[in-house]
Amino acid sequence: MQSKRTRKLGREQLRRIIETCKSVEERSLNPFLVNVDEVISVIKEYFPQWELSEDLCLDAETIHHLASVIKLQSEWVKHRSTSLYTDPFLLEDKLTRIGKEGIVNIFLDAWHPTVQLEQISLHSLAEGIKYWKSLLPLDERWKEFSPEKSETGPATREELIRQRILRDKAFSEELEDFWRELRRNVGEKGKDGKIRYWDFIGAETYEVTVHKAFMTSFLVTYGYATLEIHPLEEEIFIKPYEKPLTEIGEKQLVSIPIAVTAEDWMKWKRDELE
Amino acid sequence: MSRRKAYYTNKIKRAVHLLFYRRHRKPGVKGWELRRALGSDYPTVLKILDKHLKPLDLQVKTVFEGEKPVGKPTLDQLNKARFCITLRGELTPKEAKMIGWRIDDLAGLATTIAYIISKKGKAPRKEVEELLQDKLPKWKVGVNVDRYIRYGYLVQDENDQLYLDWRTHTEVNQKALIDLVLSTET
Known about the structure:
The complex is a heterodimer of chains A (274) and B (186). Chain A is mostly helical and 274 residues long. Helix content of chain A is 57%, strand content 5%. In chain A, strands 1-3-2 form a 3-stranded antiparallel β-sheet. The relative contact order of chain B is 0.10. In chain B, the strands form 2 sheets. In chain B, strands 1-3-2 form a 3-stranded antiparallel β-sheet. In chain B, strands 4-6-5 form a 3-stranded antiparallel β-sheet. Chain B is an alpha+beta fold and 186 residues long. In chain B, helix 1 (3-20) crosses helix 3 and helix 6 packs across helix 10. Chains A and B meet through helix 3, helix 4 and helix 5 of A and strand 2, strand 3, helix 6, strand 4 and helix 9 of B.
């Protein structure tokens, strides 16, 4: 129990050392902020406790980061001993005090820009001419990419309907026809001014069924009809209004998802749909 | 003309072609490239060329890989070094303007280089930008630092640390710059 606690403490200490070393490496802090002797004694103290490979890896990582800090310390000493060493704060202070013109004049005394020319040579000119001679004219090069010519002319309404760009009826017109169909269906097959949802939308093909379900959703949304849901019996009825509702009621509108799957459609066709 | 003189005249011409006209993305030619083109006595050729360039206020500049060797460089160090032609003397502010530098941009570059030198050759970009924002408009600072990087004066690592790049090592007398900044009375 005691050694478990010691190991936990040791891991925490090593992680803290790694973090300190990392911040010195990444933030260019003074590397002498890390007391190498102290860190080594901590590493030494906990080393006999390590048994798991994770702990040994942590130990190795700590030594690795400590080595980086020692390297930085060596560079620090080297830099301070060179003629380039200046106190960064003093230099920063100077830089902020010297005006733009002043710093430019100083820089021009220490700056020796590179001299280099980019010039065309006789050889490269000759190469250019050679290339130009072998280059095909644009109309020959682009011949194969020329698009096919097509005649343009006005399209008729029938053509656009055939291509499904236009509908043969306006949507509102189509919706009103669909509403009339619903009312007719309720009159023929319905009871109490309503009809079972599937009895209304069900059709010979699945495609038509889905289209009818789609149109029904607009009937309900635009106030031509309403849905009556009996959750216990799991029955849904659709009830057309005599006149479309033009005002939105105070009640919050809700969305009712109704799945119209191919399986349900098959069941409905076989009269098996509950 | 003696045979020896004719030999060196030809070599110098060849060296001028190599050094003055841009061949790579970075200006200058590596020592090993010169050795291949001019022969193993290329250091002598460059020394003679340098003498010829002196009256024109130009010089052959040697930029060593890593730190400048103490004493006479070895042949290996020379082969790895980059050679280019730079101005021997100094430009006047008017001349600097004529070669496409605005005073603001040049002041920003000088401040950045001096600051990075004081930080042992490495400084966070954020710190450099804060320093530049003291005298340059904020929107211009980022653009300028990017330009110094593009021109080869600075290089940035994935941790947004700025370092001095090849062009600063080639063109700027870093010691003179720091001494001048420190000795300026403010």
